[in-house]
Amino acid sequence: HYFIQSNLRTLGCCWSVPVEPSIMALMKRISSALIPQSYQVCRHTVEGNSAAAVVSSGVMTSPSPVAAHPQNKLVDSFKRPHSYLRISITERCNLRCQYCMPLEGVELTPKPELLTTREIVELAQVFAGLGVTKIRLTGGEPLVNKDVIYLIESLKQIEGIDCVALTTNGLTLARSLPDLLKAGLDNVNVSLDTLIPQKFSFVSRRPESGLKKVLKGIEAALASPLKSVKVNTVVMKGVNDDEIQDFVRLTKNDPLSVRFLEFMPFAGNSWSNRKFIPYTAQIEAIEQRYGKLTRLRDEASSTSMNYSVEGHVGNIGFISSMSRNFCGGCNRLRLTHDGMLKVCLFGKDEVSLRDILRNTSLSQEEAHDVLCDVIRSAVLRKKFSHGGLEGIQSELHRPMILIGG
Fold first, then answer.
1. Are 149 and 179 a contacting pair, CB within 8 Å?
2. How far apart are CA 182 and CA 93, in angstroms?
3. Which candidate, 357, 373, 366, 364, places its Cα nearest to that of 25?
4. In the prediction, which pLDDT does 303 show?
5. How far apart are the C-alpha atoms of 171 and 95, rounded to whole Å?
6. What are 313-325's pLDDT values in tens digits?
7. What is the enclosing helix (H) or strand (E) of 262?
8. What pLDDT, on a 0 to 100 scale, did the predictor assign at position 71?
9. Most buried residue, 59, 255, 276, 397, by CB count within 10 Å?
């Protein structure tokens, strides 16, 4: 019964079609009789090879068996536990950054197709029950969502969630910070790609005055009791690679972590090799001015290779998604604003959790059981590296703003 439910989408069925209780009961009896026990998905635990079973083109196949992790139920076939969920709470943004949003903009999703605030909290509770301990709110720009404070408060009350973080462009951070802190926000990441007003306007397609607001937000965050404040900088050759050393200077007197991201390809962001600069070249540019960097010890699941700079209070890091992936320790899942679960940023496979949640033929308990099974199955099907795609620079993915930064 649960195996069939968790694979309805693969079989081409639609969750929005009501299923009579009598049919549901019949499905359960048929699945119990016909599907081997090793392929059945239990309500609360993964047994044997269950959720690893996949239906594709009418053929049922199974990867190598993986035992359930004793302390985390979301473990993929490469034995990677997943405890970090990134939730996009809006596709709207008050900037139009070139690497994130196409020049012509994006077509907004009809409101009925978006997750409601209540649904976001409910799904977060399901993920927490599966071992997720950290949630990051993204967008779009999450601070344009009028319910962001309520969301943070609600997420902090979920048993098992140890950390609630936020990624923002910082434009309204200084104004929002008091309420964010009161709600219980733990960490904040600010996306900032230039320290030059004219260049800020060029990259963000918005007025130069925005830069001063972002810097004010970072300053306020550093003076607050937040546990961690980071700046994320996408490095693009010929755009801001001449500012790398200036960004490092921000870590001189403050406990700030500046992380340099390699430029990644997404639909509409005009990615090309001409704009790409690998992290090794970034390190060389920094060491020319600041001397030899000292490698820091990173967590196994860290996306960033972190370094200290002699005489600096803060540190720097490099997120080398293109030239040296960090997939081996990946512990992240993504939930889009329209309720799609993505197990890999670059993977094209998605499954709608929204449709299951809204299936009126299921009770809340049944819906949660099905959600658990579908999430486990998706995680077990996760590829080892970049969604299994080769040469991701030649692949088109939907715009970053429609995935969640």
1. yes
2. 24
3. 366
4. 85
5. 9
6. 999 999 988 788 7
7. strand 257-262
8. 44
9. 397
* Bridge partners, 55 (sequence order): 60
Half-sphere exposure of 236 (CA within 13 A, CB side): 20
- CA–CA distance, 164 with 288 (Å, rounded to integer): 37
Map residue 325 onto helix, strand or coil: coil
pLDDT of the residue at 48:
31
Q: What is the pLDDT of residue 22?
A: 53
Q: Tell me, what's the pLDDT at 17? A: 42
Q: What confidence score (pLDDT) does residue 14 get?
A: 37
> What are φ and ψ of residue 139, in 5° steps?
-155, -150
Cα–Cα distances in Å, from 336 out to 49, 304, 311, 325? 28, 23, 41, 22
257 neighbors 306 (Cβ within 8 angstroms): yes
Residues 6+ positions from 70 with CB-CB distance below 8 Å = none
What does the longest C-alpha to C-alpha distance in the chain come to? 72
Are 41 and 376 in contact, with CB atoms under 8 Å apart?
yes
Given the structure tokens 């790398």, which residue do they identify? 244
Is residue 52 within 8 A of residue 75, CB to CB? The reply is: no
One-letter amino acid for residue 116 of the chain:
T
Residue 60, pLDDT score: 29
> Which ranges of the chain have pLDDT less than 50?
1-19, 28-29, 31-72, 387-390, 393-394
